[in-house]
Design a protein that fits this description.
Elements: H1 2-16, H2 19-41, H3 50-73, H4 77-91, H5 100-113, H6 122-133, H7 139-156
Length: about 160
């Protein structure tokens, strides 16, 4: 389980005295703990799944990319580099990212399999992508590709 792997990596990083890695892994574990607490409060009996953790990691990467961009614009190279290093650490625990070509093929298959001919089917495709490919693709990019494919398909009719 991903949660166990993260804890093991934290212990190893502490032994190696790798400060940045330790602080990043502690942040991840704290976010997981927060989710566990919120699930308990909401009386959801299930434990935090790997998909839940992947969702946390994706969100953390996105936040760090936004922060890095802000730091870059503010000429804060030290903080910019720190954010990029944290992103690398977090991404180690994410599934392999699909290429844009792979995403396009998956989306085309879903459109044809579900006979989607207009934008109203976008929600169905997005939910399938989230369910099957969580953390493996950029949903913003997927959304753009879906719109392009559906619009170009609709014009062929």
């Amino acid at each position: 389980m991903l949660k166990t792997k993260l804890k093991d990596e934290l212990i190893l990083s502490m032994k190696e005295k790798n400060q940045l890695r330790v602080s990043t892994l502690r942040m991840i574990n704290a976010s997981i703990k927060d989710l566990e607490i919120s699930k308990r409060i909401d009386k959801q009996a299930e434990d935090v799944s790997d998909n839940d953790i992947i969702g946390i990691l994706v969100k953390m990467v996105k936040q760090r990319k936004e922060s890095a961009e802000t730091y870059k614009q503010g000429n804060r190279d030290d903080l910019f580099k720190k954010e990029l290093e944290e992103i690398k650490i977090i991404e180690e625990f994410l599934p392999k990212q699909l290429s844009e070509d792979e995403v396009i093929k998956i989306i085309q298959d879903l459109i044809s399999k579900n006979n989607i001919s207009d934008i109203s089917g976008m929600g169905l495709i997005m939910s399938e992508l989230k369910k099957k490919y969580s953390g493996q693709l950029d949903l913003g990019l997927a959304s753009k590709i879906i719109k392009d494919r559906i619009n170009s398909w609709g014009k062929k009719q």
